[in-house]
Amino acid sequence: MALKIIVDAFGGDNAPLEVIKGCERAVRELGVSIILTGSEPKIKKCAGENGLSLSGIEIVHTDDVFDIHEEPKEIIKSGKNSSMAMGLSLLAEGRGDAFVSAGSTGALVMGATFIVKRIKGIKRIAPSPVLPGDNGSFILLDAGANTECRPEMLVQFAIMGSAYMEKVMGVKDPKVGLLNIGSEETKGRELEIEAYKLLEKSGLNFTGNVEARDMPRGDVQVVVTDGFTGNIALKLYEGMGSFFAKKVKWIFSGAGKLGALFSMGKIKQFRKQMDYKEVGGSALLGVRKPVIKAHGSSDGTAFFNAVRQAKRCIEGDVAGVTESYVARMSAADKE
Amino acid sequence: MALKIIVDAFGGDNAPLEVIKGCERAVRELGVSIILTGSEPKIKKCAGENGLSLSGIEIVHTDDVFDIHEEPKEIIKSGKNSSMAMGLSLLAEGRGDAFVSAGSTGALVMGATFIVKRIKGIKRIAPSPVLPGDNGSFILLDAGANTECRPEMLVQFAIMGSAYMEKVMGVKDPKVGLLNIGSEETKGRELEIEAYKLLEKSGLNFTGNVEARDMPRGDVQVVVTDGFTGNIALKLYEGMGSFFAKKVKWIFSGAGKLGALFSMGKIKQFRKQMDYKEVGGSALLGVRKPVIKAHGSSDGTAFFNAVRQAKRCIEGDVAGVTESYVARMSAADKE
User: Fold this and answer.
1) What catalytic reaction does the record list (chains A, B) (predicted)?
2) What homologous superfamily is domain A130-275 in, according to CATH?
C-alpha cells in the first residue's frame, strides 16, 4: 500500500497554492498519497484556479489556521481545531504515516510532543535541520526548541541525529561532534564537559568537540548542542549564506557577460548546494512518527522535497532505530 | 610626548619577525614609540637579518615565552616572566600606555584582570572583536572569556562596546542589540529575558533583540551575549568567511581572464571588508588600560593595525568613558 503523507495546507507564507503544487508533484513522482488538512472550499478553489489536480489527494476539512504569532502551547488549546493540530491528530490516530507543516516551529514541537508523543525514553523533541558543508551535509540539533539542556539530552540528540543521517541520508556510521568553544575535552560549560564524557561512552561514532569555525567544512555529520546555541548557529549560517549570495551577485555585476557566462554553471551549482529548498525541511526528531517542519517561505519545490524527506524517514524507520538504540543504551546503563 | 605602546614580541605564529615589521612601520607612520618585550638577542638578530630598523623601539628583555597550550591562570604563576606577563606588568606600572599581544587569549584575559586590573565597577573583561557587516562593522562581546554570565554583565558589555564604537570607530550613539533567538522580549533564556529589561532602562541606545540571521547586515553596532554564545558566533562568522572565500575563488577559476579582470577590483574590495587584518585585533574591554589581542596568525600589517587600534583606544579614552558611564549608572541605581 502506498505511504500516506499528511500535509498542513495552511502553513507557511505561500499557502495553500505552493503546498498544493508540491503535493500534486509528490503524488505523481513519489507514488505516495496525500491528506491535506485545511479549508476544503479554499483548497478546491485554489487548485481549480491554478489548474492543479487533486488526484491522490484527500482533504480533511477544518476552517481554523494556527496563527504563527500565537503562543506555541495554544496548539493544544485554542488552536486544537487548526489545520496543524488536525494533521498531528490524524498522524497520532494512524490515518497517515508522516506529517509536514510550514507553520510555527514552536507550535509544531509542542503539538508533536503532546499529540503524537515522543519516542519511548526520549526526553525532548529537537528540530534538526540538515545544513550544507564543504565536504558534505550535516545535521544540527537541537536547532531551537530546548533553550536549556542537560548533558544526557545532548546524548539523545546524538542518537537521533545519527539515526537520521544513516537511515535518511545514507551516511554509514556518521561522525558526531559536540559544538564547543575549543577542541580540548575540558572546554566549555558544565553542560559540554559532562556531555563530552557521556558521548565518549555512548557507543556512537563520537569524534570530540567541533568548533563553530569548522562547521562549514562538514567533516562531521551530526553536530549536537543546546537549543539556544543551535538556533544562533543555524540562523547565522542562514544569514551568512544570504550575505554572501548578495556579495557574489554584486561582484559579478561587473564581470561582463562573458565572465558571467563562464561562471554561471558554478554559481548555480553553489546556490543549489546552499539552498534549503533542496533539503526539504527540518525533521522534528524524537517524535514517534515523522514530523517535518518545512521552511516558512517554502515554494512548491520545497514542499515536494519535504514530502520526499517524510517518505524517507518512514522508509528508514528513523524512529524505530532511535528507540532501539535508546533501549539498548539504557539496558547497558543498568548492567 | 609620544604615546608608548608595549608589544609582546613573542606572541602569535609569526613572532618575532612580523611583530617587528609591524612595530617598525608603526614608529614611522603613527608617531608612537614602542617597547618590545622578549629575548633581546633574538629580536636584534631577527631585525638585523631582515634589515629592519629598531629606531624608536626599546626592548625589555626576558627569555620566557608563554606557551599557548598552557593553562591561562599560569600567566600569573609559572608564566610570570614571560614576554606577555612582562608587557602587562610594564603597562600596570605606567611604563607604557597600551599593550598588544598575539598570544593566548585566555592568558591575556587572566593577566589583564590580575596584573593591569579592571575598570572600577566592571565585573568581567571581555574580548571584543569588531566584525564586518553589510551596512558597517559591529563589535561582538563577550567573544569567549566568560562562558556563563549574569544579566548585569551583559549590560556592562553594552556600555563597554558602546564606548569603543563611539570613541574608536567614530559611531555616534551606537545601536545596541541583544543576541537572541527571536525578536520578542519574551524570547531566550532567563539571561536574555532579564538582560533585556536591564538594557531597556540603561540609557544606552538599546534597539532590542538581534537574531543571528541579521548580524551580517550590521544594522546595530554593538552585539552583546554571553562568552559561550559569542565565541560560537565569532568562530562561525570566521569559518563561513573562509568557506565563502574558497567558493568565490572556485567560481572564478572558470570565469576566464576577461571576467576575472572585470571583477578583480570588487573581489579585492570584498576581501578587504572581510579581512580581520584590517581591523587589527580584539580589544579586551573592561581593563583599566587598553589591551589588544592580535590574531594568532597576524602578519606585519595586522600588527601595525593592532598598534594603531591601541593608539586610538588611548586617544579616545575608552576606559575613562566606560568608567564614568558605570559610575553614573550605579549612582542612578542608588537614587
Assistant:
1) a fatty acyl-[ACP] + phosphate = an acyl phosphate + holo-[ACP]
2) Isopropylmalate Dehydrogenase (3.40.718.10)
